[in-house]
Amino acid sequence: MSDCLFCKIGSGQIPAKVVLQDDEVLAFDDTNPQAPVHVLVIPKRHVVALNEAGAGDQALLGRLFAAAAAVAGKKGIAESGYRVVANTGRDGGQSVFHLHLHVL
Ligand code: 5GP
Ligand code: ZN
Known about the structure:
Blueprint: H1 5-10, E1 18-21, E2 25-29, E3 39-43, H2 58-75, E4 84-85, E5 101-103
């Protein structure tokens, strides 16, 4: 998706403070943090939201959650605790329509 903000971050076209990444997943600091730690975890491939994640995306969803846990470890909040949130759709507060997990 050429006009998608998170696709551009995922491909490195737009810079971000990367926390971790692998071939499918990227985690980076949110530019408008709502907590002392606020990291976004995205698939590098464009998926609009949970609603559009099909049966073939289940492994990817697992990798996103595993990356969220790895982010918590890397940021030093694994023991103290954190939330993982996926805002979905307009009424769910989603503003960027490329699937992402918030780690807060
Ligand atoms: P949503 O509201 O869609 O669940 O979350 C989108 C998040 O993306 C917001 O927390 C917002 O602060 C963050 N965000 C928006 N634009 C940028 C950007 O250019 N870079 C980064 N790192 N985060 C962004
Ligand atoms: Zn995208």
